[in-house]
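Q: For a teaching session next week I want to show students how multiple molecules come together into a single three-dimensional assembly. I've collected the sequence lines for a complex. Could you give me the predicted structure tokens for the whole thing so I can convert them for display?
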Amino acid sequence: SAVISQKPSRDICQRGTSLTIQCQVDSQVTMMFWYRQQPGQSLTLIATANQGSEATYESGFVIDKFPISRPNLTFSTLTVSNMSPEDSSIYLCSTESAGFFGYTFGSGTRLTVV
Amino acid sequence: GNSVTQMEGPVTLSEEAFLTINCTYTATGYPSLFWYVQYPGEGLQLLLKATKADDKGSNKGFEATYRKETTSFHLEKGSVQVSDSAVYFCALENQGGKLIFGQGTELSVKP
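A: Of course. Below is the structure for the complete assembly, covering every listed component.
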């Protein structure tokens, strides 16, 4: 199955600043997904990122707040912009594993906004 | 729309006890179903999956059977260990590869 390297693993940021999270996959993949896990909550899909096209955002998430890049088939970034304490969450990227064993997740980025 | 409902936690068991975590789903058609596990401070790991009705997924002593009659995918393990302490998420695959997760069930196993 695909292996995803995600960084940073955690960060503490000042409100009003932005943080970019990176995910590198060890194989070429068509779709990548970005999820948010708020404290003590389940995972919610932010957007789907396909190479060569704009990301598709879920209801409640907008590109100005969560811009996503997908420059090639092995890499994607998510930026959390103009952060507020409500953005404190774990952010995870995901992709489909070859042979459809399932969906693989990065180790997550634990973000705290102060 | 499609949804997943899990039993609320936390669930506290003694080592070697039998585990059941209930998961039911609402979906059009027969989506693939998954159980993921999240150990403290870590990301999600796929535990097992089932892609069609009556399929049984199994891994590391955990099992779950895709039951279309009861729209359920309950997770079971015959004898839990302290190392199984984690949060368990039931999920279904929605259109376009998007996963819909249940709310998660925290399991704590005491020695």
